[in-house]
Amino acid sequence: MISAVIIEDENAAYLHLKNILERNYGSQLTIVGHETGVEKGIKLINDLNPQLVFLDIQLQDGDGFEILDHFSNSSSFEVIFTTGLRDYKEKAMDYFAFYYLNKPIQEEQLIAVVDKFLSKQSAFNTDKYVAFKNQLENKHHKISLPMNNGDFILVDIDDILYCEADGSYTHFHTIDNKVYTTSTNLKKVESVLLQATFFRIHRSTLLNLKHIVQFNHTGELVLSNKKKLMVSSRNKTNFLRILKLMNYSVS
To answer: Is residue 251 part of a domain?
Structure first.
């Protein structure tokens, strides 16, 4: 039996979530506690040591990040965010592997998320949490790029158009038509830029979504500097989802 707690300051939202869980997972999951704020939430987790925490980001005396910060070095639970912050759902799921639900909670979405948790039984990942938190708070604005001569170039993340893999090297293309090359592979670059608006459109290309001005059905992108890139067929479906969530869409 999975033990879970709910940290939610809206009573109606708490009862709605609890009822859905009890109705669908009565034999697999039990709600062992509920709190409404940061300090009491920390005490609840310490006292009950749950395997799963349903956590609202905006609480009555602070935010859910304060709770996770407290457990960043000693956590053994997984987190499912339940929040009214709507802008980051798809990126949270795709980039950070956090479970994330928008309020009001829809039963079918909650079932899909809990089923995924039950199949994986994973624990809270500090690195992914920090990246997710930084994304929501928009903390990081620059990236330091190590040059072959030992120097470092500081570049505004928003000024990066895209990053291009070249074996174990990565080329950073910027809006001022400069290219910076580092001896860091694209996978590592992608992990560093988790908190920013970047998406892997191709095996060798990491794109800054802020610089897209056009996308057509063939998979071709046009960037703000008129550069054209292709989205791989493998990544096209997820790319379209993110594109719609980032912007108003009439489709």
So the answer is: no
In this structure, are residues 209 and 246 in contact, taking their beta carbons and an 8 Å threshold?
Answer: yes
pLDDT per residue as tens digits for the range 194-208: 656 788 899 999 999
Contacts of residues 163-166 at CB distance under 8 Å and 24 or more positions apart, as own/partner, are: 163/189, 163/190, 163/193, 163/198, 163/205, 163/206, 164/204, 164/205, 164/206, 165/203, 165/204, 165/205, 166/204
Q: What is the pTM of this model?
A: 0.53
How many CB atoms lie under 10 A from the CB of residue 25? 19
Q: Are 30 and 5 in contact (CB under 8 A)?
A: no
121-144 confidence digits (pLDDT tens):
655 666 666 666 665 555 557 788
Which CATH number belongs to the domain containing residue 162 in this structure? 2.40.50.1020
Residues 69 and 245: their CA atoms lie apart, in Å, by 28
Q: Name every residue whose Cβ is closer than 8 Å to that of residue 152 and which is 6 or more positions away in sequence.
A: 144, 145, 146
